[in-house]
Write a structure and sequence with these properties.
The chain is α+β, with helices and mostly antiparallel strands and 392 residues long. The chain contains 9 helices and 25 strands. Bound molecules: manganese (II) ion (2 copies).
Amino acid sequence: MEAQGAQDIQKIEKAQHDKSATDPGPENQALKDSNPNTFMPPSTDHGEVQTFWSSFSAAHRRIQEGGWSRQVTVEDFPISKDIAGVNMRLTAGGIRELHWHNAAEWALMLSGNARITAIDNEGKSAVRDVTKDDLWFFPTGTPHSIQGLEPDGCEFLLVFDDGKFSEANTTLISDWTRHTPPEVLAKNWGVAESALESIYKVPPDGHYIFQAAVPGSLQDDIQAASESIGPSSVAFDFAMHKMPASRKTQYGEVRIIDSRNFPVSTTIAAAHVIVKPGGLRELHWHQNADEWQYYVAGKGRMTVFFNGAKARTADFNAGDVGYVPKTLGHYVENVGDSDLIFLEMFKADRFMDLSLSEWVSNTPPELVIQHLGISRETLQAIPKKKPLIMPQ
Ligand code: MN
Ligand code: MN
């Protein structure tokens, strides 16, 4: 296929401003207004590509007493094979019940306060309180719970290292016990069958989320849970709200969290990115994994270059999800008037990227000039040390 020439781009630009682009038929106006780069694509966009935009705001909410959840998985978002996401709210006292699953769970606290519990591979207890901008990570098969605290519970984002993960398929303590014969459960715990009647009164598919009393002091819970064999030495939580930026420029800052500074997180790496209005997360790619994105705040647009003359631009707002297959070039630009905050998530033990700037500035200059036809002065002006966010 022939690449787009300058003439084609001029033709497209002309068509975008004449009768060719008029739109007399029906529109979902709200959706159209939040996707201006889909409706009127940059003239450099070209070709058919898989959709890499989704949104929690279009996902079903499972609402129960104590909170709610919604998810974006490969079922509804086919490009997203490596990672699935869940967004959850718990009231003060609301519990996401004791459970585990066959995927590792990474979390970002979006608002409020929560208490998390887990046991490590030696059975030792970890109980911690987390707040906005803190993280946690529970490896595959690690049992855990989450409970909202005062004053108004919490909301958080969960990221799983498997696009097929579903919140509807986790091992709940109430579901498992409810489906074990009472005489077996009684024998298993060495207690009377009559003492276990309450277990068989829970809903057939378990509690999942339910309202309970707000827990007491953290110290009391830590003490009580670690009485028999002591507390876990594993840090399942990470206080990102206290972390200094890994990289900072005039137009933004980036925090990188992976197994190098958060050792338990061996299968999920993250970059938390803040771009000021007008700033740009520079053109780059990731050598080691697909990128799953979650937009926390602001308005951004991303162009993903799919090779072979294919490129597509999409808009992202708070609550949206983006996806970039491994090694495909992309940028994210703040096109709003407030900070753009988003997550770059990878099914990997470490964050890894290369940028277009560092490529051209660490290659023999003549070679680059022969490819791009730019002047030596222009090449000299390109940042030499990957700034991540431009302008520097
Ligand atoms: Mn979980
Ligand atoms: Mn990226």
